[in-house]
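Translate sequence into structure tokens.
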Amino acid sequence: FIYLTSGIYVLKIDYSHIMNRLFFLQSMSLAVWALTAVIIYSSASKPEIMLWYKISSFGFGLYYASILHLYLMFTRKQLAWHIIAALYIPAAIIIAATWFSYTLFEDFIFIKGQWKFIPAFRHPGFYVYLIYYITYVIITVVMLLKWKKRAESIKEKLQSQIMANSYLLTVILCTTTDFILPVFPSYNLPALAPVLLVLNTAAILYAY
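Result follows.
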């Protein structure tokens, strides 16, 4: 609900502005990710989970490309159409891979009254996503820090600092809760990335 309303709110301010449309896109990808996560954890069967997990790929697959594109617009980068296309190709590959193979998870097991996600460490798709994820995160953070360094106004320096800090913080938290802690059998919390990323969305709204 938060992602949906914030995306529509920004879009209604000025539909024609590319940054507003990109903010709407990243908000919708997070909304899909969060909604499918809720459905997955309340599902009664593994086939049902697999279907909604595939649908969720439009969220976790698209998010990192759309947020990088948005931040590039913040820094006033002029992007040719082929650069923009190349920016989204890895996201399209991740989405396709999730529908036809493995990416993040290889199984879902019902333990102690809840579904536990088993990371797909044995499958190449997981590492394709990992490369996409890490590469886009590094590029995004470095780009924001460079923007801060060359920014002339106090407002832009503050914007870049807020967005770099919030993005890096949420990425670290998401990686820890979704991929590191689940390795330990005693860890029972659900995947929290679609929830934690609301911090980054709020930071963008504040900085904007």
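Note: The mean pLDDT is 89.
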